Please model this.
Amino acid sequence: MRDVVEGFPRPVLGRPGDAGLFGPGSMVWRVNGEVLTALGGGRALLMQIAHPLVAAGVADHSDFEANAFARLWRTLDAALTVAFGDREQVSAVSRRVAAIHGRVTGRRGDRAYGALDPELLLWVHATLVDSALVAYERFVAPLSGAERERYYQEMKAFAEAFSVPAEMLPHRLADFDRYLDEAVARLEVSGEARRLAGEILRPPVPRLLLPAREAFALVTAGLLPGRLRAAYGLAWSPAREAGLEAAATLLRRVGRRLPRQALVWPHVRAASARLAPDRGVVRVRNSVE
Model:
């Protein structure tokens, strides 16, 4: 169990008064701050590696197989720091991730890949945006069209922090949705991606966490676009869909009853304290509800 929790993110408070890229009242704080939004993380990963060059980069350069949870916490910490950190913290993460990605290069057959390829960066960003919206609306609360649009527009700053060229980002959410649909229709899930998917969905865990691992696999399969779910060979049925919806309904109900501080990441609480040290979690409540 120690290996699972050892690398759990512990954010640093940051510079007092510095709201970072977004701040209270933003849709990014509202959506990305919710712990339950992270239930879309498996979906995003499987969508990412459905691109054969992303799968190649993960297979060749990632330590996922050796320590899946350490990699998960590092990735999560970077994303949450960009969303909730101060400007200096955001800049540090941006530089560090760009340096790491600069070393991720290689070939598959006659095709070269690089993690700083703008097309691949855009695809990875697209999976994060879409999966966050899917998971938030499934497990937390519905969003209006205007809220979805605002979230998409705000996340452009998130994309640029991770080296996605601004000119490549679709202009409006409707343009983004078309890009995503067309990209998914072109994807061909490779054998390498299916092998990685097995490691993502069922990493080695202590016996105590086996039910949680199976629940994660069910949620990930259920949230995937149907075409990709079939390409990965993930079984689905009306009974599984009903089970997922029952779980989602339960989570939404529980979420409305639990204290807000129990439902957000530590980065949200750190950002709240940085902006209003005398109010702490009250500010978090106002920023995400």
Remarks:
- The radius of gyration is 19 Å.
- The chain is about 65% helix and 5% strand.
